[in-house]
Amino acid sequence: MSKRKSEEQIITSLKRAEAGEPIVDLCRHEGIGVV
Fold it and tell me: What domain of life does the UniProt record list for this protein's source (predicted)?
């Protein structure tokens, strides 16, 4: 079972995506599977 992300972690990830970080890299860093 995977653990949930805190609100702060989610906000940080969204800000990184808005700043232009590739979504694939962001998902890889956060441990989210990409199909």
Answer: Bacteria
